């Protein structure tokens, strides 16, 4: 560990690329939905191996208030594929509640 720290301090490209200024980050705001299906989070994950249906992604949506989860395999992460998932697998099933007021996407 000491050797690594020493190497980094003596490495010119490492020293040049390191940003010593403190980063600015907006304060995180905790959002508390007040009713079900008001706020929905969406995430896309790559799976391996490919499914028999040729799918390599999993799209998951979770209602932040109730923690209800819906996950479906999809072939890609194109906007048309994801929007079709949202309409077919979420809005059409929960049509009495309408579309979510806000959609959070995890980009990690």
What labels describe this entry?
Nucleotidyltransferase, domain 5, four-stranded mixed β-sheet, 108 residues, 26% helix, 4 strands
Structure write-up:
The protein is an alpha+beta fold and 108 residues long. The chain has a domain at 39-105: Nucleotidyltransferase, domain 5 (2-Layer Sandwich). 26% of the residues lie in helices and 23% in strands. It contains 3 helices and 4 strands, in the order ααβββαβ. The protein has a 4-stranded mixed beta sheet with strand order 3-2-1-4, with helices on one face.
How do you describe this structure in short?
The protein has helices at residues 2-10, 12-17, 79-91, and strands at residues 39-46, 57-63, 69-74, 102-105. The protein has 108 residues and is of the alpha+beta class. A four-stranded mixed β-sheet has the order 3-2-1-4, covered by helices on one side.
CATH first level of one domain: Alpha Beta
Oligomer: single chain
Q: Distance N terminus to C terminus? A: 28 Å
CATH superfamily of one domain: Ribonuclease H-like superfamily/Ribonuclease H
Query: Approximately how much helix is present in the residues?
Result: 25-40%
What is the overall silhouette?
flat
Low-confidence stretches: none
Q: In total, how many beta strands?
A: 4
* Major β-sheet strand ordering: 3-2-1-4
| Main sheet overview | 4 strands, mixed
Order of helices and strands: HHEEEHE
Question: Number of DSSP helices?
Answer: 3
CATH architecture of one domain: 2-Layer Sandwich
Using the coordinates shown, work out and report the CATH topology of one domain.
Nucleotidyltransferase, domain 5
Helices and strands: which structural class? alpha+beta
